[in-house]
Amino acid sequence: MSIKNKILAVEKSLAKSIIGQDKLVNRLLIALLADGHLLVEGAPGLAKTRAIKSLSDLVDGDFHRIQFTPDLLPADLTGTDIYKPEEASFDFQPGPLFHNLILADEVNRAPAKVQSALLEAMAERQISVGKTTYALPELFLVMATQNPIEQEGTYPLPEAQLDRFLMHVQVGYPSEESEQKILNLVRQEWRKSSDQSSDNTISLSQADLFAARQEVLDVYLADNLESYLLQLVLATRNPEKYGEDLQRWIEFGVSPRASLALDRCARAHAWLLGRDFVSPDDIQEVTHDIMRHRLLISYEAEAEGINSDYVINEIIRRVAVP
User: Fold this and answer.
1) How far is the C-alpha of 105 from the C-alpha of 67, rounded, in Å?
2) Residue ranges of domains in the chain, CATH in brackets
3) How large is the greatest C-alpha to C-alpha distance in the chain, in angstroms?
4) Residue 262 in contact with residue 290, Cβ under 8 Å?
5) Which of 158, 169, 208, 288, CA to CA, is 20 to 30 A from 34?
6) Which alpha helices (DSSP H) does 21-111 contain, by range?
7) What whole-number distance in Å separates Cα of residue 33 and Cα of residue 39?
8) Cα separation of 284 and 287, whole Å?
9) What is the pLDDT of residues 60-85, one digit of tens each?
10) Which pTM was predicted?
11) CA atoms lying within 13 Å on the CB side of residue 197
């Protein structure tokens, strides 16, 4: 089986167990192929935890879930030096960040020091304890979740730290048809005996995944589409070129990380669809998830009931497509 077929088999298997959240499944795979991290926002019970746990069952790598709480300490993520009196020395005990796939559940419930420890690991792919720096695994994906309906006792991530996430994905409720399928799926799972072995035969090795990333980088991006990608980014920094209303709505434009993310994610999106070239639709499809958390809108826009998604829609509409 080719590498692309293996990835597509993983996507198909995830779609069977994560019903009604096709976008989340797609963005998880894009993040995996683009070597980035996801911030997922949605109400409880929308299969956020199930999605990354199911992915870990299909990929050759270990998984760890961290429940973020106000009393969490940075060492609870990174690990710490333990003193061994019999040897009169310290021994480093790795924390959960040394796993391949990490679920940072309700990341906004932990204080700033803990969030910083996580985000530093995401950006640098290493952690420092005392005077020693430890490298994290080459396969390292963090999916952080936020609950939008509870704000009491939370510590919102600053905009500069949100920029470390490749994409900010919003998930909503499934349709009636999808919810019926969820009921049937869960009933089937309940009927399975605890000792029944899984019939899943899909296993994506890390070598296959790294090879797939190289194939994604080889997806062709034409010069005029690269220019279009950059114009979308520059429109957030120079909005006056596209209308006085955009200038009034945008406080700060997106960072260069947005350009890099658009490049990698558009290529990954095209590759998953079986194409060896990027189209304007690929760029537009991932623009919201890449810019949503990087675009800072003004208080005036908020007073008018305008959010970042609306502004991004306007930018896509006004920037000429090649």
Assistant:
1) 5
2) 3-191 (3.40.50.300), 218-318 (1.10.8.80)
3) 71
4) yes
5) 158
6) 22-34, 48-58, 75-78
7) 16
8) 5
9) 989 999 999 899 999 999 998 888 88
10) 0.91
11) 3
Token pair of 88, please? 């009169």
Written as one letter, the residue type at 251 is E
- pLDDT tens-digit readout, 79-119: 988 888 888 788 889 999 999 999 999 998 888 889 888 98
One-letter amino acid for residue 125 of the chain: R
Q: Which region among 123-127, 152-156, 157-161, 282-286 has the lowest average model confidence (pLDDT)?
A: 152-156
Write out the E strands in the chain: 38-41, 63-67, 79-84, 89-94, 101-105, 126-129, 132-135, 141-146, 167-170, 250-252, 296-297
- 163-217 pLDDT per residue, tens: 999 999 999 898 899 899 888 888 887 887 554 444 456 788 999 999 999 999 9
Compute the residue count for the chain: 322
